[in-house]
Write a structure and sequence with these properties.
single chain, mainly alpha, Ammonium transporter fold, two-stranded antiparallel ribbon, about 60% helix, globular, disordered N terminus
C-alpha cells in the first residue's frame, strides 16, 4: 500500500510478509501473500494492489515532469525576447543537474533529516541511500525527485534576466542537495520533526497537555511551493533588480514580457501537471481485506481531484476581480497567476478539506496574488519577475495554515 502521509523512498517485500520502511520522499508499503480466487487463477491480492499502485506512481511521476515545460513557457513569456534563451537554459539545468544531485545526495539527506529529528530513531545510512543498491526504491525515488525539481524550478522565475548561469548552478545544487531535503525530511521523512512522533510535535503536545501536534501538508503547499517562493524572493533580493525596473525615485517601471500567449499556455500546462501532483499523492488506490481486493479508493481520489479543480477556478476568479477593480479591465497575466495561486493554496489541503473549503482557499489564494505582488515590488523594492512569492510563497503558507478551519472532520488544534 502506498501511503500519502509522509515521504519515503523504499519498498521491497518478500511473499507472505508485510514491509514498511521510511526514506526521504514518500512512504511506501506493499503487503503480499494474501490471495484471492479469480476463475482458475489464484492471485495474490497484495501483489495486485502493489502492482497497480506502483504503475500509478510511475504514471503520475511522468505527468508531474510535464510541469517543467509549463514553467519554461510561463517564465519565458514574462521576460524580454532577448532573455528567453537564458530562462529556458536555467529550466533545463534545474531538471538535468537537479535529478543527479538529488539521486547522489538529496534523497539520502532527506531521510537522515527524518531520522535525527525523531526520538529513539537510529540513523540508518543504508536505508537512507538505498537508491544506490535497492531496485525496490527506484519508483518512489522518482516520485520524490519530481517534487524536488518542482521546488527548484520555482526560483528561476524570480531571478529571470539578471542572475548568472554559474551562480544559478550553485543555487540548484544547494537547494536540491540540502535545503529542500532537510525541509521535506522534517515534514515527510519517516516520522520527522513535525510529525506526531517527531521531537517538535511531542514537545508541543506535552506543553499543551494534549495529544502530539502534527503538521499537515498533503502534497507540498509549504514543503515544495512556499519553500520555492521564499528561496525565489531571497535570491531576487540578493541579485537586485533589473536595469530600468525602478526609476530614480525608486518607483517601479514595468518591463513587459514578450509573449502573453507563452505565459498563459505555460500556466495551463502547469495546471494539467498539477492534477498528477495532487491526485498522485493519494497513492493508495485499492484496499485489500481478507485476502481480496475489496475497494477502489474512488472517493479519496475524487475529493483531491474535485478540490484541485474548484480551487484552480476560484483562484483565477479571485485575482481577476481584484485587477478589474483596480484597472477597470481584467489582466490575463494576473488571472493566470491567480489560477496558479489557487492551485498552490489547495495543494496542502486537497485531501483534507470540504469542497466549499477548497473554493474559499482558492479565492483567498487568487485575491492575495496581486496584493502581495504589489507589496513585494512597491513596498519592498524587490524585482520578483514572475511573482513567485505571491503565487507560491504566500499562497502556500495561507493554504497550509487554514487547513484546520475547513477540515472535513472539523476543526482540531492537533493538525
Amino acid at each position: 500500500m502506498l501511503t500519502n502521509s509522509r515521504d519515503s523512498l523504499d519498498a521491497r517485500v518478500a511473499p507472505g510478509t508485510e514491509f514498511e520502511r521510511t526514506r526521504g520522499n514518500r512512504q511506501i508499503e506493499w503487503t503480499r501473500g494474501e490471495s484471492l480466487m479469480f476463475g482458475d487463477l489464484l492471485l495474490q491480492a497484495g501483489a495486485i494492489k502493489g502492482g497497480v499502485e506502483a504503475i500509478w506512481v510511475l504514471v503520475v511521476s511522468f505527468l508531474i515532469f510535464f510541469m517543467q515545460p509549463g514553467f519554461a513557457l510561463l517564465e519565458a513569456g514574462q521576460v524580454r525576447a532577448k532573455n528567453a534563451g537564458n530562462v529556458v537554459m536555467k529550466n533545463l539545468t534545474d531538471w538535468s543537474l537537479g535529478v543527479l544531485v538529488f539521486f547522489a545526495v538529496g534523497a539520502g539527506v532527506s531521510a537522515v533529516a527524518g531520522f535525527v529529528t525523531t526520538p529513539n530513531t537510529a540513523v540508518d545510512l543504508g536505508a537512507a541511500f538505498s537508491q544506490f543498491t535497492d531496485p525496490g526504491s527506484w519508483i518512489v525515488w522518482l516520485f520524490g525527485a519530481v517534487f524536488a525539481m518542482t521546488a527548484a524550478t520555482i526560483v528561476s522565475g524570480a531571478v529571470a534576466e539578471r542572475m548568472s548561469y554559474a551562480s544559478y548552478v550553485f543555487y540548484v545544487i544547494a537547494l536540491v542537495a540540502v535545503i529542500y531535503p532537510v525541509v521535506s525530511g522534517f515534514a515527510w521523512g519517516g516520522d520527522g520533526l513535525l510529525s506526531k512522533s517527531g521531537y517538535l510535535g511531542v514537545l508541543i503536545g506535552n506543553t499543551l497537555g494534549s495529544d502530539p501536534i502534527f503538521y499537515k501538508d498533503f502534497a507540498g503547499a509549504t514543503v515544495v511551493h512556499a519553500l520555492g517562493g521564499i528561496a525565489g524572493l531571497t535570491a531576487a533580493y540578493m541579485v537586485g533588480p533589473r536595469k530600468g525596473r525602478f526609476d530614480e525615485n525608486g518607483d517601479p517601471s514595468p518591463i513587459p514580457g514578450h509573449s502573453m500567449l507563452f505565459a498563459v499556455i505555460g500556466t495551463l500546462f502547469l495546471a494539467f501537471g498539477w492534477y498528477a501532483f495532487n491526485v498522485g499523492t493519494q497513492a493508495t488506490v485499492l484496499t485489500v481485506d481478507g485476502g481480496a481486493v475489496t475497494a477502489f479508493q474512488g472517493d479519496a481520489l475524487g475529493r483531491v481531484a474535485l478540490n484541485t479543480t474548484l480551487a484552480m477556478g476560484a483562484g483565477m476568479i479571485g485575482s481577476t476581480l481584484v485587477t478589474t477593480f483596480w484597472d477597470g479591465k481584467p489582466d490575463p497575466l494576473f488571472g493566470a497567476n491567480g489560477l496558479l495561486a489557487g492551485l498552490v493554496a489547495i495543494t496542502g489541503a486537497c485531501a483534507h478539506v470540504t469542497w466549499a473549503g477548497a473554493i474559499v482557499l482558492g479565492v483567498i489564494g487568487g485575491v492575495q496574488t496581486p496584493l502581495v505582488y504589489r507589496w513585494v515590488v512597491e513596498s519592498l523594492g524587490i524585482d520578483d519577475v514572475c511573482g513567485v512569492f505571491a503565487v507560491h510563497g504566500s499562497a502556500g503558507f495561507i493554504g497550509t495554515i487554514l487547513i484546520p478551519f475547513f477540515d472535513v472532520a472539523g476543526f482540531s488544534l492537533s493538525q
